[in-house]
Protein 1
Amino acid sequence: MASAAEVAESREREDVRRRWLLSAPALLIIFLAGTGPLLIVLVYSFLTPGDYGDVKWQFSTDAWVGVLFERDIFDDTLSLASAHMAIFWRSALLSLATTILTLIFGFPTAYFIATRPESRREVWLFLITIPFWTNLLIRTFAMKEVLRNEGLVNSLLQFLRITDQPIQFMFTDFAVLMGMTYVYLPLMVLPLYASMEKIDFRLVEAGYDLYATRFQVLRRILLPLVKPGVIAGSILVFIPSLGAYVTPRVMGGGTNLMIGNLIELQFGQGRNWPLGASLSITLMAIVMVALLVYVRYAGREGGQHG
Amino acid sequence: MAERYFDVRRQTGFTTVAMICFFLLYLPIATLVVYAFNDNDSVAIWKGFSLRWFYSAWHNGQVIDASIRSFQIATVAAILATIAATMAALATTRTKPYRGLTVKYAFINQPLMVPEIVTAVALLVFFSRVKVWTGYSGLGYLIAAHTAFCIPFAYLPIRARLEGMDLSLETAAADLYANRWNAFRYVTLPLLWPGILAGLMLAFVISLDDVVITEFVKSGGQDTLPTYMLGQLRRIVTPEINAISTVFLLLSIAIVTIFFFVSRKRA
């Protein structure tokens, strides 16, 4: 006869097997249309470009060298690929600027929502979520409507006689920055709000009792309390900004490329799939590092934020 | 008291910035909608009120085609993703940690962690091979891709709902000799339903909105509404795009509003 322990153990084993079967469809779909193809991209980054796109099955590390360097066609020496560097630099700067701008606008907004009476917070929050769930392309296009030469901003500037010629905003880095800030703002407000909602305002009161000024309260009490939210929001904005494709394409025209557009170029006109693959893996690696830093940080904070 | 009430919550200028923020959030959308009613051939200059661009969009075969395709893909992908996500949520919640659980979490959330453009080129590379091997180039690829990135979105609300559920009801069902299926069918499923519905709606909206992955995976003549619009933006834009966007916006807002009230009722 089986002992009680054996019965329990076989039950548990059966339970684990059932759980694997249940999760199989989701895991399979994500493997087939996600993880698997990513592994193929990793393999492709070590191959030779074909003549008309695609790859030749010939091992080469040229694509990885090509991420940072370009080979001189005459004397075969390597030099830093200035075009790629410019694009990496622009992506990093624009993503950073987007994060800072969304923080500047998002922080007071989240604070405003968090300090409303409880019954009204939901409505304000809902107003932030609506743009978040509407199509990203449409929102980018809406920003284009505002910034174009005959758009709202230029009409206003001309009406106020600040300029007599429309200012060319579109197809500049400024337009890309405005577009990304607009599109990713909700991603900053939501985590900020989640951590502000839990603020114990007795601490603020105590600060004022000790003769702190409003600014000191903000800097010494509020900011440290919502730090996890600031970090979460910054990561949530920075990561998609770095990989942005639609916004730089629509707002930047064909010239103000970011990493995402550079990758696309290799699979289109560039016809250098291995280089596109190595650039993709590079972008993914940067994002993964950012996520890991965030996870470690969030873990240390003891999951204080929602 | 003579002294004015001192509000500890107030921070100078925050309300002003918040109001500017809400204003700026809705200004571009409002502009877009207003120009949809522009009676002019180009978006550039306002000429007068007209519904002609809505009429013209309605009679544009490409737009109707793309809309129908968008809905087909979103419906099938959302249903498949929700079924897969529900099963996965049942397998990953309310359990002692077991070997492979972390792997499952990582897998299910993988589409959220990888930049969309990277997934897009990966699928382009993989599916272009498969298209050559099998000769099949239908909507299946788009549906598979959409299902994959919708799963994490469907999974989140379902898992949240499951974790908040009272285990004792299922135990009670088991005590009354309900087998596993009956306990699920008559106890778990009815309780889980709002979560499943929320997951389904999220997945539907996410699929409907996708541009990047669709743009890279689609074969010729498989434009969805967003990729059709992206293509149009390269040309001289007529208010027709505004009209299409307006209808699309209304639809998204309607879905989100329903979602808001469904999830609110629960609380």
Note: Chain B touches chain A through 90 residues (CB under 8 Å).
Protein 2
Amino acid sequence: MDLNFSAEEIAFRDEVRAFIDANYPKHLKGKVLREDLSKEDFLAWHKILGKKGWAAPAWPKEYGGTGWTATQRYIWLEENARGETIPPLPFGVSMVGPVIYTFGTPEQKERFLPGILSGDVWWAQGYSEPGAGSDLASLKTRAVREGDHYVVNGQKTWTTLGQHADWGFFLVRTDTSAKAQEGISFLLLDMKSPGVSVRPIKLLDGGHEVNDVFLENVKVPVDQRIHDENKGWTCAKFLLAHERAGIAGVARSKRNVERLKSIAKAEIGDDGKPLSEGEDFQRKLAQLEIDLSALEMTELRVLARESAGKGPGPESSLLKIRGTEIQQRLTELTLEAVGNYAQPFPRGLGSNEFPVGPDYSGAAAPIYFNWRKASIYGGSNEIQRNIIAKMVLGL
Amino acid sequence: MNFDYTDEQNMLRDSIAKWAAGQYDFEKRRAALASEDAWKTNWATFAELGLLAAPLPEDFGGLGGGAIDISVVTEEFGKALVVEPYVPTVVLGGGALKYAGSDAQKDEHLNAIASGERIIAFAQAEPKSRWALHDVTTIAKKDGAGYVLNGHKAVVLGAPQADHLLVSARTAGGQRDAKGVSLFLIPKNAHGVSTRDYPTMDGTRAAEVYFENVSVGAANLIGETDNALPLIERIVDEANAAYCSEAVGCMRMMTTSTQEYAKQRKQFGKAIAEFQVIQHRLVDMFMATEESYSMALRATIKLGESDTERARAVSAAKVSIGNASRFVGQAAVQIHGGMGVTDEMRVGHYFKRTTMLDATFGNVDTHLKRYAALSAKAA
């Protein structure tokens, strides 16, 4: 057992760090910390990575990925967090891409993977429905086969950044008589198809991040179905397990801990001394760091298993639960650190006014409110506990 | 012992509930938030209902009520998510005048507060003071018979609507000296006063307030020169007690609406309220709310006791309600699922309001330390 990087891995780290330092657009740095990103911002960084061949680090080499080891991918995430870069295009690169290269036909891979890699096609997810959240398998959006296409009707919700989407991947019901999980198919759908409409949902932070998607007699060619008919749940489970692993966000949380420390140095406590010197705050921060270490070490163990060919299984639920709990505590502690300057909330009015209070203060409350989503999305933390109880503990 | 409200207090509660149900439902409130002037109509109603006059002395247009009356008002305001600056005007402004104002000052301002014609905001916090009430760098320099003020006050709640500002300023001593702080009541339109208005996280309004060579007369001084800190401590304790009751109102709504939602929301073929993990969370929310009400009530009743007893009871309530409301707010959002983080569900707005209240006049850490220090001194 050895926790140290090898000489090759250190060289790799230095290479990544130098690349990010030299190529990451400076004007995008603060935007990441404020969690205020446009489609153009995502694409700007994605295209730079694409030129280097690093747009999809986790993908196998044959599909345009890097073929990096799990350790290299870990280093990659660390360095990106350190450089405060924009995360990869979430729904294309991180989600539908792996489903397509794992379950798609050669034609489908050829048709869809290049657009994901280049960033020319923005993807969105059509999973949850108003009546199917935690109980995703109860979804009702119906796809009826008519010759060489399906006719799709239904409503999807919580479609993140769906307002930008060119294409979407949707879970639809193709067999109403089978058991819930067995009658679902995985369809790729052109968002410009007649009958697709997208409606924004405004969130507590005042932002427009998620959407309702309405599907009314949308025609979807059968060759846009991934995997066999009624095998969509297999794709969904595969994707959810991947999503959960990424959801731990260890590298980003480590970066945010550092950021919180710098805020605590700048903030003055009630005793007139820097907050960072106050014992209460020091303890909370120390506890958070320790919990984050436990998560990180556990994630590394899961990664090691994954490199040994044992793909992420139900234990990734642990990473999701602890990762999101830590993310949320970080937002909470940041809010607390900022004190009463957390109260001004000019965001959401669409103004570009200079911030009220220190420049780090304005985003603290919106981010705190917004990140309550983390224990809800990707399968709520209650559901993750059910998964561990059932799949890991056999209860 | 008697935990009953008087008939008058029950009537007060009912009148607010009735008004809120008719004139301040979620949609009307949302419209009011988006409008510059809608609060004026609501404020006029508060005057008509006697809410503004309730705790003020009868000699100056008030109804002679006390802290319990205020807690009845603010708890109902919490349920209705009222954003108008009631506590700044009535509890802080009205309190300072009631306890330390001259008869002339009371006559001029308390009558106007009671009739709805005077809105006061408390310009107390500063950019680097956090929640330390004695940390004051705004200077009031003696100038003939009057004073000249210079300084910057941070996140002044209700300042956009206010016509007068109650200002803590240093007339002697160093930045963090307890001695040397004085209180002034100044018209917001005085020469040299400027503001930057903005909404806060919960939809209320606040401002940064800047004083640049603002000349005021001795008649603007409230109470004794250099010795305002005990008065400030007192009115802030009273404001915190009122805000604690408001948080209880918010928590009551979060617990009941989450129970309702869990009974209606079906997943896995049954209402999610049938799952034990949800039931236990709902029970914990209920318990937290009941204990919060106890602590708010305790703080309110003890406002009339010695300075130390009053301060300890208020800090105790701020600590337990700060913790409880965070738990209840987060649990309410969680059980509502994705709907809980949307702007369209009321539950998230209660969560925002209690988050705001926790960060008003000291958070859990501030008051835990204050409580411990007061207890150590008393022992």
Note: The two ends of chain B are 27 Å apart (CA to CA).
Protein 3
Amino acid sequence: MELLIRNGFVYDPINGVNGEKMDIAVKDGKIVEKVNERRAKKIDATGMTIMPGGIDIHSHIAGGKVNAGRLLRPEDHFKDVEPKTAVTRSGVGYSIPSTFTTGYRYARMGWTTVMDPAMPPLEAKHTHEELSDTPIIDKASYPLLGDWWFVLEYLRDGKIEECARHVAWMIKATKGYAIKLVNPGGLEAWGFGRNVESIDDPVPYFGITPREIIRGLCKVNKLLNLPHTIHVHTNNLGKPGNYVTAIETMRCVEDLAEDGKPAIHITHCQFCAFKGDDWRTFESGAEEIANYVNAHSHVTMDMGQVIFTDTTTMTADGPFQYTLHMLSGNKWTNHDVETETSAGIVPFHYRRKSYVHATQWSIGLELALLIKDPWKILMTTDHPNGGPFIAYPRIVAWLMSRKAREATLKRINPKARSRSLLPSIDRELDFYEIAIVTRAGQAKALGLKNKGHLGVGADADIAIYNFNPETMDPSKKYKAVRRAFKRAAYTIKSGHVVVKDGEVLKHIDGATMWVDVQLREPCEIEVNENMKRRFKEYWTVEFENYPVSEDYLAVSHPIPVKADV
Amino acid sequence: MPIVKAVTCPVCGSLCDDIELTIENGEIVKVKNGCAMCEAKFLSHRSEHRIRKPLIRKNGELVKTTLKEAVQRAAEILAEANYPVLYGWSSTSCEAISVGIELAEEVGGVIDNTAVVCHGPSLLSVQDVGIPSCTLGQIRHRADLIIYWGCDPWSAHPRHIERYTAFSEGRFEKSAWRGYIAKIRTLIGRKKIQSTVRRLVFKKPPEIKAQLEPTFVPSIAKEGRKLIVIDVRRTKTAEMADFFVRVEPGKDYELLQAFRALIRDQELEVDSVAGVPVGYLEEVADAMVSCDFGALFFGLGLTMSGAKLRNIDAALSLVRDLNMRTKFVIMPMRGHFNVTGANTVFTWQTGYPYAVDFSLGYPRYNPGETSVVDVLLRGESDAALIVASDPVSNFPRKAAEHIAKNPLIYIGPHMDVTAQVADVVIPSAMVGVEASGTAYRMDHVPIPLKKVVDPPRGVLPDEEILRRILTEVRKIKREKAKAEAA
Amino acid sequence: MAEKPKLKVVLLTGRTIEQGVGKELGKSTREYVESVSVCYMDPGDMRKLGVKDGVNVQVSTAFGSVVVKAKKSLRAPHPGVIYIPYGPWANVVVDPETHGIGMPSFKGVPAVVEPTDKPVLGLEELLKQQFGKG
């Protein structure tokens, strides 16, 4: 099928295109030089904004934890339903939408690729079953490896290469995309109800520190040549004073960076940019973090922006979720996974009038605006932890418009307002920068070569928004920006027009991407044999029932990578 | 003779996946590692009680028919119905369940799984309180205190104790089976002595007195793993336990709340609760707070009796409270091998674990209203599709009566009680024996099911049958719409 | 003729390993039917009623009445409590009320047990009697 999109204002930062009026040609799901003008279906994008399809580097949309959240919260769904239509399946929202609804809602906003950031390896099949049931968008998932016993043991013994080989086995076995660390060491300690307090606090019974885990897996990541860096949820997340831990975490891999390339991704940084000794003295640590990031090139991060709404917090950070439960008194689900990881879920309402919540809202935006290079700080809400992803249009408006920020600032807790750095920040992102923080930068950080841009050969994932950058000023017309991003004029996925004027036209399957790590020949068999031998001791399932076969992926998209071990 | 290893057993929620089967001439002839139920299931694939041909009721009698006609008739029943019930799902694969939900959405019916009559109240309580839990391996590696409350794994989950709890071997905790063997020996010895004494001294055995007295009081303080059983009867599992607490029927709620008070160091102003002396309760409560990792498993003894979901509320709250003192987890003992999978698939596709009503075009959930037993008791359904379940044999008579009155479609491998009163019977392959798929263990770990032998000729898996019915339903609806337009 | 003795009890229903094996073998097998058309009783209660192991008893509740075989419980003592494994026989007498949560009362139903001369119905007869189909 051929498609010709005419006359739109194109923002394609990877190719340096900044709002130029141009046509885009699509054939067989890819961007091409040109198409047969007569045969091609034409879309008139005159007066509209065109960007590559949106990408989300960190959004909890599938798997055991997300589903435990859905189960926990019928009250979340009652208020937000999606009836079946001639082309779409029915479903529910709000903060933890059912799988079909998740796919449709991303597509309606013009997002076409989403990374689920926390897959417990033992339950990887579950994550993939849900991803396969999430229509339209492409997706991938990061296996949780920071507390896996094999990793702890090999790194403790200094066997980096051995560790790398086993991590490679795991990424393949789980059909994973990147190495995820959550409160490294803390989750193993949580197995007995404990935690680690700093990156140098030893993990009980394992004789290793979080610093050694982070450095070790950073080296492993490099040995395996994975497309993304290690993806880190820091220790002490959600605690006042934790901006120090965040900076220590970034600093501890400084020497491992090469040629100015990123070596670590700090995720939902808002949650680890807290200053103060306790909740009373709590304040923003965004400036300190931004100063560090502005001076270093080995870090990328995402915002984890807070939205004032009722949402559901869910992370693999079991001890943090327990603290949140004790703090809020809200219901609490915990799910520890043998030899690997843990998870916790607590419903949470961010209130404008709460000093802490309002300050958290401010921190996210401060980070995005104070970090000068937009390629380093990407837009997320850590869905659904900071708020549901359907709030992205609001964040885009806050980033583009000082006026939009002021409108919200006026209504938040007065103490939070008086301490917020936002009134002192004039910066307003333009569409080029928005395209970076929502697409191009995300693709670059993830190492997705065919996504996040509109150059020839790229995947034909395209968003068209009904906003005319020539005649309208987003800084003033921020509500029009919000409307445009809420309901894309068109969303094109793999060359199919899947959304028009915010309505889903077509239910198609998206692909699941995974990294097919290829080790040097003899190692593969050796690792396999070793795993087989130790399996019964570590897990309660049989070796051959553990890996995720490709049958579990509705559309499997392996990305081959040659490792250096 | 080919041997197939690492086969998953499709019987109970323990989902043991280490079964070894010997296949001879396309039949399973030997089952290794499994329990009695596992063996019976794998050997039953060649049973004479299988249904081999589709059946359809004509003039009151079930007669043989073709698959095509049976599917057609089933589709007509569903397409014509206003408010059909689609029930079962706990003994089939997640893949089949997924098609079932699509079918329910298409016909605007109520879809419900067997959780509604087993751990439905547990799910409702989880929605109230949350649940601190984990995978079973976590318990194997770490738990030094294991409590079974209102459940009898020896009968319902025969390998649960050896694979996952007291008698399993973990990284931080070792198996307690040696201690158990020693205990049995002394017990047998003691019994022999007692009976000899009785024969010599008494003519008639003395009445058993003080039945509340726990048998092994000192063992509560023993080193290593401890096993406590709380039940209304001295079950087989109770006999293995270090400590048995007999609760009066229907009084579990009182006992749970008593424990909640005790672990908060409150004093009880009574001498006994639910028939148990407070002194014993204090010992158990001490064991709870002083363990390193405790695990509480509960069964239908809690969900079905007395306060039902309020029992579970109390149990979940007790375990949540215990986390202020130590590490503690809780898990329902799920019965059917894939009831957890049914809840899981229902939840990711509709947001709710069971009792989902599609009559308004979107998922609606209100157990007590949209749950199958209530729909039947109110006599509202006008057709029923039963997959891999036997409600006529499992539901209270009044509910079963209404199913039997409805035009009834049954899909399953055996001539179950429901099949005998059905109007359309479509035989299906046994999932996990003759058809592959995925099932979820009671701790939400997904495990693949294998196809090890072929189904009888012409017999299809549930997933395929449902897909054919769905296609047929859509065809009927399309034609109807066309006719109406014309 | 003296009136036959009756005993007020609490009815529990649940799983047994025999029922578990029986259901896997097939619902129309002898093993299954024999495993679920029984009622486990406390030996003391059986003495009070004057019934022996294997004798037919009638169990009646507010919801129905069914004849099953009395069996001496291996899990005794549990005076005043009878136990019928899940199955079509138990379902005649359990409480269908869900109290608004979807779950009928399968355990803890007040019941009366008495000896009887009536036979235990086979599965087909039971279905005919209860549903008029089968």
Note: The first helix of chain C runs from residue 17 to 25.
Protein 4
Amino acid sequence: MVENRPFAQFMAYLTLALGVVIVAFPVYLAVMASTFDTATIINGNMPLVPGDQAGENYTRTLLYGGMHARQPVGGMMLNSMIMALGIAIGKILISILSAFAVVYFKFPFRKTAFWIIFITLMLPVEVRIYPTYKIVADLGLLDTYTGLVMPLIASATGTLLFRQFFMTIPDELLEASKIDGAGAFRFFKDTLLPLSMTTIAALFVIQFIYGWNQYLWPLLITTKSSMQTIVIGIKMMITTTDALTEWNVAMTTAVLAMLPPVLVVIFMQRLFVKGLVETEK
Amino acid sequence: MEKRAHISGWTLPLLLILPQMAITVIFFYWPASQAIWQSFLREDAFGLASEFVGFENYVSLFEQPEYYRAMVTTAIFSSLVAFFSLACALLLATQADKNIRGGQAFKTFLIWPYAVAPAIAGVLWLFMFHPTLGTLSKPIKAIGIDWNPMLNANHAMTLLVLSATWKQISYNFLFFLAGLQAIPKSVIEAAAIDGAGPLRRFWTVIFPLLSPTTFFLLVVNIVYVFFDTFGIIDAVTGGGPAGQTTTLVYKVYADGRLGGDLGGSAAQSVILMIIVIALTAIQFRYVERKVQY
Amino acid sequence: MAGVTLDTVRKIYAGNVEAVKGVSLGIEDGSFCVLVGPSGCGKSTLLRMIAGLETISGGEVKIGDRVVNQVEPADRDIAMVFQNYALYPHMSVYDNMAYGLKNRKTPKDEIDKRVKEAARILAIEPFLARKPRQLSGGQRQRVAMGRAIVRKPQVFLFDEPLSNLDAKLRVQMRVEIKRLQRALGVTSIYVTHDQVEAMTLSDKLVVMSGGQIEQVGTPAEVYRRPETRFVATFIGSPPMNILPGTVEGPGRVSVGGQSIAVTDMRDGLTPGSAIEVGLRPEDVQAGSTGTSSLSMDVDFVEELGATQLFHGKVAGAEFIVQASTGQLAADTRKLTLAVDPGNVHLFDPQTTKRLGRA
């Protein structure tokens, strides 16, 4: 480090602290709101220290939901969890297999296959939303977990990530395995899979967050309220006439909706950063 | 790049690649081609018959004033969010790159908004700036501004930009920090020996060396604003007031939900696809030239 | 155990690049054969074809009496030590060595016995539970060797196994490999670009260049009587000096007007025709012996400790003389070199082949 003057140090702390405060304040407010009753919030004078309604709010929200959308948020969280896990695990599964095929085998139309997958990188689900909706409807997959998950795992990120990682594994490992009498399956199970664990975990973290936070797609294909995810659920709570919005329930739901992915980022930060940086290469 | 060593046989690899191929074809190529095909068709009022109408759907799209407004909205929204989130992130990253104690903790506290769903981010900011009960609305009203994002389009856009920027800073921060840490310390030391002060070092050495990262992030941010902010818009403004915060993607959704004009909606999707492909292509070409290196 | 026989083996890559141009070679059972040559000479490709890691474009590879062209590497009964060791990073040292045996359904106690035995021989017993990344370069090298010997294969294949080690360790491991091979008596084929390794390890030395064999022989034969100019300059350090000369008559050539006697010279060479005269730096002495001597202008001296290298020119060509330290004054500017007729090598300038007695 060149010149580490005290003033520069002080400015660095000040800027970062300010940044953290700005970043944290909206969430702090939400957490506070989840500890008051509706009336306290509605009158516009919500205190900035916790109230005493937290237990009541969280129990009611998780088990019964709001007054208008009477859907227990606990169930919504379960739906979100299934969708997020489905997307994360599904994507890892199909992409590690396809990357294994593309990198370690020579077969007819290999390049073509790779490009067919690669192109999907460019187009997020949002641009083809209605035709996809129609196909999912035609397949009878509305209001199903399969319908929620499948279209969202049709992308190249995972395949590219695994391909990139496999390319860094020395060729000699495959050759040594061949001499050691391991076939394709054994090489995959005994060598490739154990070596890919960090990559798998990193991809899992990223895809879990991506899946949990999905909005437009579940909004379209879930018609039954029992299939709603929590991110959709919160929207339903605040669209009713303004005066009737139960902000305490809405904010409690918001806190619950943030909790799983935020915990994942904080506790698996290293994997998260690795996944984020490498899927974008 | 190619591996030297391969495993022999070709039925196994075809089986391995099959699941991904099937999902990609069914849920990606099929709908994408449907969108392209439908954009050239017009359905009758009952959805019973459709005829090929060439580019007519596109023509009528460009005759709608709402479509131009959505384009302008998207452009303004994108540039504001990209500018503010990049600027804030760069400022924070340069400070975090200084070898200060507790740097790691700051990093953790700055990156977690990435994990917050856009729709949730929107709700948080709506709550904070709610015209009647928002904690921060009161000070704004106190200085004489009639703050109401529900009715005033400029206020609504401000709120959208704030929440979208808030959510995107963490992502940009991470990449800027990685970019900064990749700059060899010796280059900065050489600049110091050449007599450049901290600010001058930043603008003449560090910032130019960061340009690949900046450019990459610029494209990613624009794509982010195009698509991922859908949840924010839907939660905060619902495209209003009076359609004044409707972006191109939101318009596809809103028009489609009203039902009816499938061809027009498909044409909108196709235009979006072209925009994204163009952005990605620019990114690939630019990154290949390796700005600065 | 078995020998290895190569019969006009070829390797042609896509784009018609011929990396190995019809190599025939017999490697006796239990011998240590070293393939040496500059990078790109085809030595590694040849080894990898024997291992079954490269397809064979033409010819035949036999291990023992069995043609193995179409046999999978696992079924060839060979073991290989790679340049980068190719240890499985996620497995312990023990599992690395046991893996090949497990895949062959060897009974557990047999595996255990063999791994422990190999570990004892290689003195890596304390590290059996460790992962490769916790080992030093030399220890990893031993594990790679261990993985090869537990298999008790017919043939060991070594692909530049020492080139990732530092100089001191390389010398030490070289000795160990030789000792181990002697003890086990397994046919070994070893690829290297390092001529010192090649000389010290081999029973049979194969010098390759441009996808072909230049010469096969014992190290001593190859050193004493190089068949081509390439072999002459490749084996030996510093390399053999090559001087332009002309034929004077039977047993005599001239270099820059100075006449030299030669013992090993083909009969019937036309007097006056051009010829290349090779002299090893260590084979010339300072001091005149009357009938056979050369004069040299010295440019500078390199000190190597026990010896000194005098760099300069003889008859306008670069020339190096190696002398024991103290034998000559370091500021010598002119030397008269005595040439032993038995140490002169002659080569045809066109074909570069040796022009010795038939």
Note: Chain C has a mean pLDDT of 92.
